[in-house]
Write a structure and sequence with these properties.
Strand content: 15-25%
CATH superfamily: Alpha/Beta hydrolase fold, catalytic domain
Order of helices and strands: HHEEEHEHEHEHEHEH
CATH topology: Rossmann fold
Structural class: alpha/beta
Shape: globular
Number of strands: 8
CATH class: Alpha Beta
Number of domains: 1
CATH architecture: 3-Layer(aba) Sandwich
Strand order of the largest sheet: 1-2-4-3-5-6-7-8
Distance between the termini: 44 Å
Largest sheet: 8 strands, mixed
Helix content: 25-40%
Oligomer: single chain
Length: about 260
């Protein structure tokens, strides 16, 4: 494994495989789906929503998987804790690669937000994305205008400059070249929003993932955006996302503390 390949392989820090974490998330998501049952709404685009109170604040989550794995159904494991904290919860569906392209994924995420706006009238919307989902969340809410007002965007362990990925196996289903990667990289694009942003990463991430988050936080700050950056102690790429819905953690306080 080359150094670049290793740096952009989050599992290289936790035993070399993401499968145990993916399996756990899927198992817990299945349990959450059974628990939520009739309370769960599936939109026409496949996004999943549970909103017991349509006026409650809404946490919208865009999953990771390097744009080529996972789904909204695999992202319901965060819902029970979000609901317990007084929030509604939505898991965004988008078409992963190779069937979906990165620009089409951005469009689908934007459309999902617009659809949710027609179903609930939340006190506020927090948009969170993990890993590849952080990239999509940035594209939807910071690079381009969001179809709904966003109180806070929370970017967890993201990749914001996609050019290094062109030279890794991650790119095989994506088919990016340097120019295409640059055109879809938030790090290289104007910042079009002014709401709060949280940029977070685990202390047990690769140097590349840490550098990506720090660089994008600096980019946002230079554009005048109010940014909170946090390196979460004792967390790696796959378990940091749990803290999103735990108000007692540093990330949870930053993500949900404004409710």
């Amino acid at each position: 494994m080359t150094d670049l390949e290793r740096e952009y392989s989050p599992s290289s820090r936790v035993g070399g495989s993401s499968e145990p974490f993916v399996a756990d998330h899927r198992l817990r998501s299945e349990a959450a789906r059974a628990l939520l049952a009739a309370r769960l709404t599936t939109t026409s685009g496949g996004t999943l929503l549970v909103a017991d109170d349509p006026a409650a604040p809404l946490l919208v989550f865009i999953h990771g998987g390097y744009w080529q794995a996972l789904s909204a159904a695999d992202s319901l494991y965060l819902a029970p804790a979000a609901l317990a904290a007084g929030w509604s919860y939505a898991a965004v569906e988008y078409t992963i690669a190779p069937a979906g392209t990165l620009p089409s994924m951005v469009d689908e995420c934007r459309a999902a937000l617009a659809t949710l706006a027609g179903l609930v009238a939340p006190a506020q919307v927090v948009l969170a994305g993990h890993s590849a989902g952080a990239h999509l969340a940035a594209m939807v809410s910071l690079v381009g205008p969001s179809p709904v007002p966003i109180a806070r965007t929370v970017l967890v362990s993201g990749v914001f400059d996609l050019r290094p990925l062109v030279h890794t196996t991650v790119n095989l289903p994506l088919g990016l070249h340097e120019a295409a990667a640059a055109a879809i990289s938030p790090q290289l694009l104007p910042v079009a929003a002014s709401h709060e942003v949280v940029v977070a990463w685990g202390d047990n991430e690769t140097d590349a993932f840490k550098a990506q988050s720090r660089a994008y936080a600096a980019r946002l700050a230079a554009a005048g955006t109010q940014v909170s950056s946090v390196e979460c102690a004792g967390r790696h790429h796959f378990d940091i996302v749990e803290d999103l819905v735990r108000p007692g953690t540093p990330l949870g306080r930053l993500a949900l503390g404004g409710s």
